[in-house]
């Protein structure tokens, strides 16, 4: 069995274990999670539980994926834009359209396939064979900086920094409309949508607290270029938050307008452009900027 170990946090207190796993493992269907739980494939603090088991803070949830559901992930020679690298970590500038790690029905062409080739398999194993080295993610159509861990010590250290929000993560986004306030904070809980399980939504009752700090950089025609700083890192957080206040990310085909005929638009305009953190192994402060992709830069030039 390939195991993924997750720890319940304070906002997860009282949450059913099946709901917790559905939120944390968005690439796995709820029906498959239920099947694994019913078959004893999920434990809490070492003991098998039912789907209705209610979690407490610091409970350790172990998700077991049978070997026959986890195919060999093949290293692939895919070019990587490496922004920083040392013996413990590397930071890549992920291109638009690249999935971070393999999932059911999608086992090639991912960042993990490229990393396995580039590092000859020298990646941390904490997150199992499908997500080696991956300590956090950005969406398929979001571009920019992503941290990869080469060993378990670095992975644990980076996970600890993420848990206490001690990594400075800034994004650039082109969004619909203009803003009255040039700097503000969106503090709205985000959880799985109750009407569409493939989407996230603002959910005051069951969502986990999510905080995004927004700074308007300039107006671009009927759009705006903004900087978003993450205080928390929920799935689709920036996209959901901006859509919730009527300023969805330009090109977002999930949370934005169904039709958006914009000259030069090549998909979602959200870019993880800055990472700053204390290195988990050396203590050195790492500060990395990811250049915006060409299509993003052209849009800025076109509308400014």
- In the predicted model, the low-confidence regions spanning at least 5 consecutive residues are none
Shape annotation: globular
Task: Give the terminus-to-terminus CA distance.
Answer: 54 Å
Mean pLDDT comes to 88
Q: Look at the structure and give the CATH class of the largest domain.
A: Alpha Beta
Radius of gyration: 19 Å
How many strand segments? 15
Main sheet attributes: strand count, strand direction, barrel closure: 9 strands, mixed
| Helical/strand content category | alpha+beta
State the helical fraction.
Answer: 10-25%
How would you characterize the overall build of this protein?
The protein is of the alpha+beta class. The protein has 3 domains: 2-65, Structural Genomics Hypothetical 15.5 Kd Protein In mrcA-pckA Intergenic Region, Chain A, CATH 3.10.290.10; 82-164, Pseudouridine synthase (2-Layer Sandwich), CATH 3.30.2350.10; 169-272 and 296-303, Pseudouridine synthase (2-Layer Sandwich). The chain is built from 6 helices and 15 strands. It has helices at residues 17-24, 30-38, 111-118, 152-163, 237-244, 294-303; strands at 2-7, 42-44, 47-48, 60-65, 82-85, 89-94, 143-149, 168-176, 183-187, 190-192, 200-202, 211-220, 223-230, 270-278, 285-289. Helix 1 crosses helix 2. The termini are far apart.
